[in-house]
Design brief:
The complex is a heterodimer of chains A (261) and B (854). With 261 residues, chain A is of the alpha/beta class. In chain A, the strands form 2 sheets. Chain A has a 6-stranded mixed β-sheet, sandwiched between helices. Chain A has a 4-stranded antiparallel β-sheet with strand order 2-1-4-5, covered by helices on one side. The radius of gyration of chain A is 18 Å and the shape is globular. Among the domains of chain B are: 195 residues, no CATH class; 215 residues, no CATH class; 178 residues, Barwin-like endoglucanases. Helix content of chain B is 56%, strand content 16%. In chain B, strands 3, 4, 5, 6, 7, 8, 9, 10 and 11 form a 9-stranded mixed β-sheet that branches. A 6-stranded mixed barrel of chain B has the order 15-16-20-17-19-18. In chain B, strands 2-12-1-13 form a 4-stranded antiparallel β-sheet. In chain B, strand 18 and strand 19 form a beta hairpin. In chain B, helix 7 packs parallel to helix 10 and helix 23 runs antiparallel to helix 24. The radius of gyration of chain B is 36 Å and the shape is flat. About 1% of the residues of chain B have low confidence. Classes of the chains: A alpha/beta (261), B alpha+beta (854). At the A-B interface, helix 2 and helix 3 of A face helix 14 and helix 22 of B.
């Protein structure tokens, strides 16, 4: 367990799935300008489960929006693979979201009029691509959704809905899945289930997941935790446990207190 | 609660505005209709007063003789009095003729209704002043002579004779107040001439006036003079000018009020559709405010207060929309008046809209009440929001989808019962005179079943939308999404579709009825007339071969030159006595044309099949009556001719006349006759009305008679088309309101589905796909309403046509492709258009919003 204020040293074994270089987002202008994120540098290796952690308003959501191409950057670059997504127009971003990025939302955001199966394959339909049945079956088995495919979201529990959402995010075999507080609307048991499914999809299915959370026990499921505070990347914890994450957060707070004159 | 209602309204302003527009259109309709009714009443009132000129009193009675007039003139306070006679005369100048009303020169300028434009009014018998427009038509000026042609009856023998007099035109008049507007202006003559003509016309029965108009001395007391007149002329009624005008106006506007009532009926339909839009809007608003309402309940608002807040909002919306609607209605009426005044300066119209209390109060009350009533159900729904709802996560609101069993039963009862009555109406009208029973029964059945269809809309529109959606869904994910979305709120989709269905059903019904009636009547006419147009010389027959032929080569070339006339055939017509081997068959008209010529102009050339020099074509009806068959010999002899008999073989065809033979046969009958009839064939695509106008214009200075199927058909088609155009115009308001409803529903849904749109964008939906999905959704709702409405309208239109026209014979049920196609095109276009604004706001949604947590 190590904590450091800089990105890991040495070149990664293979090209990172996601990279950030000097990523900066400023809302507003002039005296009322707010720096949500300043000069963030970050590498997310492929096949890793990364958690971005920080207190409310720390800039963790902004970082994820920028990495996923959901929001425009003020400065800096964000790469998915070798593609600089900060230069893409709306059409190219749509294609990016179809092919290379998946999302899991806090409120599940399933379409209420479609069944679980229809929800899962919707991204492929929108892209006009055929469904890879083998991959679909793998996902359904991994996420234990076999007997729920004909149900509509209103007939599913929160945990089941979130598992459907994870299947939807993975169906197009994206380079990276962004999960935004995926356990925020779930009780602790369902939340734990969802997190282990996320982890299994990384370990067994070889996916890359970036999860934003403020819950240390959720972050502990990740391979690595990136800590963020006041719009700056403040540290990193490898092989986290809930205790080590809490300690890291405490260290951040101490740092804050020291920083304040 | 008012403060709350106002705050809620501010938040939902755009939604309310479009619902308000729907109400405003309906209200504007009512206001404009009432104003039009007022204008018509007022205009007739003015024209009544105008025909009495500046008279103070009018004396009326059954026996107003010159003696009465003398007694009136001798009464105290009377400055002048004139008798008014009802008199018409034919005027001829050059080749032109006219038949104007005649009035007498007034003894006092105050009693003269018309003004002199040039020259003067007649001072002596033998003089006449003409309306300037009439003088124009007859090509006359001051100083010219004009002939009167009148038929008079000998008092002794009762024999009619023509009498002609020559009159000097001394002046031209105009009629700015429209006193004689209804008869196109009156010629003014000296009272002596009028009295003499009247005497001649009525065979010396003595002059009787219609009315005596009285002008009083300036200082005379009206009531005293009135009493004195009643004494001086016993048995008469003495009215003031205003009383008389009011009486006449009331008599006349019985019709206007019926017209106003009919138009108000259409306004009611528009308002009904607007009410559906309002109900829909409020239902959605209440659903969207579930959290706010629940919060209110949590902090202590009771159900009554919640209901009141919705109703107060509806009342405010209704009042504002009605006020706007009235303003628009009045403005429209004012613009119409100005335009009409410029286009048609002869008709004395008021220059400003007559605004009465009723014109303002009635539409305002109706618009507000309709909005309030429409909001009742949503207000009740608002009271059902439990305080608990404030604590639940905010999901997209789902409106009730379950339709009650009561609704199903009522809808079935009304639809089946009404349908039964509709069929019964058709069946009843089959018998002789059955229309009078069948029509009311059919109308009742139609109305009931339509109410049933609307009550049941919630039950049967969603499955139809689902079916249409399934078909569309094959085209791609956008369409599939749209189809799924239309079914999320069946109640909302049904109400939106039903609003459009009402207007479209009525439009389709009217179009179908009109098209069927047109075809049915056209085939009726075709069976009665052999050719499009017949021009006949009434004076020239076998009995009177010496008369001057009126059908000259000049006439023929002028007719042939008329655009739309394709062929002109010379024909001769004589009356023949005919007999078969069993005896005399009486007299019939025999048409004489060469076979090729006949075939060229007949509406159905097959009618001349078998026509040859040794045959005579007999129409089927005659052949059946006398038991004649092809090949039977008949003998013919011209009535009033030399009596030569010829025998010919019968050929039975569908000839729409009586008998048809060749010129050779006529020669064999010993009759030599110039052309006394022309048969005209018109181009298939000719504008019959215009062609007939031109034909009559070409014959205006001759005594030739024009008749034929084209004329009759043109008249009927004109009437049908005009009525249809008016009705469709009136229904357009309802359709426009319904389309506003489609746009409103769609944009409400878009707001509701904001997060969903963002999610879709996040998982890879492009802007174009999102836009397309909304366009499909709008089109689906609109097209389902339009298609179902068209189908329903078709059924109603056919049922109506059958009921009304079955007594006439075979009814042709037409499918008005053009109109139905136009309705569908409008629906598709409107659905697309309705999706434009909502789609714009939907695609502006950033995918980031999918991540937001409320």
């Amino acid at each position: 367990m190590t904590t450091s204020a800089t990105p890991p040293a040495g070149p990664p074994a293979r090209l990172p799935a996601v990279r950030a270089r000097g990523l900066t987002k400023v809302y507003g202008s002039g005296p009322s300008a707010v720096e949500a994120l300043v000069d963030a540098d970050m590498d997310v290796p492929a096949g890793e489960f990364t958690a971005i952690m920080g207190p409310s308003g720390s800039g963790k959501s902004t970082l994820m929006h920028l990495l996923a191409g959901l929001d425009s950057v003020t400065r800096g670059q964000a790469f998915i693979g070798d593609l600089d997504i900060t230069t893409l127009d709306d059409r190219e971003l749509t294609r990016l979201r179809r092919d290379r990025v998946g999302f899991v939302f806090q409120s599940f955001n399933l379409l209420p009029m479609f069944t679980a199966e229809q929800n899962i394959v919707l991204p492929l339909e929108l892209a006009g691509r055929p469904v890879d049945r083998a991959w679909f079956d793998t996902l359904v088995t991994t996420l234990a959704l076999g007997d729920r495919l004909d149900h509509r979201p209103s007939e599913l529990s929160g945990g089941q809905q979130q598992r459907v959402a994870i299947a939807r995010a993975l169906i197009a075999k994206p380079d990276v899945v962004f999960a935004d507080e995926p356990t925020g609307n779930l009780d602790s048991r369902a939340g734990a289930q969802v997190l282990s499914f996320l982890r299994r999809s990384v370990r067994e299915l070889g996916r890359t997941v970036i999860m934003v959370t403020h819950d240390p026990s959720a972050a502990a499921y990740a391979d690595r935790v990136v800590l963020i505070a006041d719009g700056r990347i403040a540290g990193e914890i490898s092989d986290p446990t809930p205790e080590s994450v809490l300690a890291g957060l405490d260290a951040l707070r101490t740092l804050d207190e020291v920083a304040v004159p | 609660m008012i403060r709350l209602a106002l705050a809620q309204m501010r938040r939902s302003l755009p939604r309310l505005v479009s619902a308000g527009i729907a109400v405003a259109i309906g209200t504007a309709f009512v206001a404009a209709t009432l104003v039009a009714g007022n204008v018509i009443t007022r205009t007739t009132y003015d024209s009544m007063v105008a025909s009495l000129a500046q008279a103070d009193l009018v004396v009326r009675g059954s026996e107003l003789t010159p003696d009465t007039l003398a007694a009136v003139r001798a009464t105290d306070g009377v400055a002048a009095a004139d008798g008014r006679v009802a008199l018409w005369t034919e005027l001829a100048a050059g080749g032109q003729r006219a038949y104007p009303e005649v009035t007498t020169r007034a003894s006092d300028p105050r009693l003269e209704a018309q003004q002199v434009r040039s020259g003067r009014l007649p001072d002596a018998p033998g003089e006449i002043a003409l309306p300037a427009s009439l003088a124009d038509r007859l090509d006359l000026a001051v100083g010219d002579e004009v002939r009167t042609v009148r038929t008079t009856w000998d008092p002794e023998t009762g024999e009619p004779s023509e009498s002609t007099e020559s009159l000097a035109v001394v002046g031209l008049t105009e009629d700015p107040s429209g006193a004689f507007a209804r008869t196109g202006g009156a010629a003014v003559v000296h009272p002596d001439d009028a009295a003499r003509w009247y005497d001649q016309e009525w065979g010396g029965e003595g002059l009787a006036y219609d009315a005596i108009v009285v002008a009083l001395e300036p200082q005379a007391d009206l009531e005293a003079a009135r009493a004195a007149l009643a004494d001086a002329a016993p048995g008469t009624v003495v009215q003031t000018r205003d009383e008389r005008a009011q009486q006449l106006t009331a008599e006349l506007t019985g019709d206007t009020e019926a017209l106003t009532a009919v138009v108000l009926g259409f306004a009611a339909i528009a308002l009904l559709v607007a009410a559906l839009v309002v109900t829909n809007t409020f239902q959605v608003l209440v659903a969207q405010r579930t959290r706010t309402l629940a919060l209110l309940r949590c902090v202590g608002a009771d159900k009554r207060q919640v209901r009141r807040s919705v109703l107060v909002e509806a009342a405010l919306l209704g009042a504002a929309a009605s006020a706007a609607g009235i303003a628009v209605g009045l403005a429209l009426a004012q613009v119409t008046l100005l335009v009409l005044g410029n286009v048609n300066p002869d008709v004395p119209l008021p220059t400003t809209v007559p605004v009465s209390a009723a014109v303002l109060a009635v539409p305002f009350a109706v618009g507000t009440v309709v909005t309030l009533v429409a909001a009742l159900a949503p207000a009740r729904a608002a009271t059902r929001v439990a305080p608990l709802a404030a604590l639940r996560p905010a999901d997209a609101p789902v409106l009730g989808t379950r339709a009650s069993r009561g609704r199903l039963a009522l809808a079935l009862l009304l639809t089946v019962g009404g349908g039964g009555l509709l069929v019964g109406g058709v069946a009843l009208s089959g018998s002789e005179g059955g229309v009078m029973v069948g029509l009311p029964v059919g109308l009742l059945g139609g109305a009931l079943s339509f109410v049933g269809v609307l009550v049941g809309a919630l039950l049967w529109i969603p499955p139809v939308v689902a079916l249409a959606g399934r078909l569309l869904a094959r085209t791609g994910p956008s369409a599939r999404l749209a189809a799924a979305n239309t079914l999320r709120n069946p109640r909302r989709t049904s109400a939106t579709s039903a609003a459009l269905l009402i207007g479209v059903t009525l439009v389709a019904m009217m179009s179908t009825g009109a098209a069927s009636a047109r075809t049915t009547l056209a085939s009726e006419f075709d069976a009665q007339f052999p050719v499009d147009v017949v021009v006949r010389d009434p004076n020239l027959g076998a009995t009177d071969p010496s008369a001057t032929p009126q059908i000259t080569s000049d006439v023929v070339s002028r007719l042939a030159a008329v655009e739309g006339v394709e062929a002109v055939a010379h024909s001769r017509v004589v009356t023949v006595a005919w007999a078969d081997d069993e005896g005399d068959l009486g007299w019939e008209e025999l048409q004489v044309l060469p076979p090729d010529t006949a075939r060229n102009v007949l509406l159905d050339p097959a009618q001349a099949d078998g026509l040859a020099d040794d045959t005579v074509v007999v129409t089927r009806a005659l052949a059946e009556r006398y038991g004649l068959a092809d090949g039977d010999p008949v003998t013919l002899a011209v009535d009033g001719g030399p009596g030569t008999e010829v025998t010919r073989d019968v050929v039975v065809t569908d000839f729409a006349g009586a008998l048809l033979a060749t010129p050779t046969t006529l020669g064999a009958l010993g009759v030599d006759l110039p052309t006394n009839e022309l048969w005209l064939r018109l181009a298939a695509d000719a504008d019959t009305v215009a062609v007939m106008d031109d034909v009559q214009e070409a014959l205006s200075d001759s005594a030739l008679q024009v008749f034929g199927v084209a004329l009759e058909r043109a008249m009927f088609e004109n009437v049908i088309d005009t009525l249809l155009a008016i009705v469709l115009g009136l229904l357009a308001a309802a359709v426009v309101i319904a389309l506003i409803g489609v746009a409103n529903t769609l944009s409400l849904s878009v707001i509701e589905r904001r997060r969903e749109s963002a999610t879709l964008r996040a998982i890879g939906m492009s802007r174009a796909q999102l836009r397309g999905s909304l366009a499909v959704e709008g089109m689906l709702v609109a097209v389902v309403g339009a298609v179902l409405g068209s189908a329903l309208g078709l059924v109603y239109g056919w049922a109506g046509t059958l009921t009304v026209l079955r007594a006439l014979g075979d009814v042709a049920l037409e499918l008005p492709w053009r109109e139905l196609g136009a309705v569908l095109a409008v629906a598709v276009a409107a659905g697309l258009l309705a999706s434009v604004l909502p789609a714009r706001s939907a695609v502006r949604t950033s995918p980031v919003e999918a991540l937001a947590v409320e």
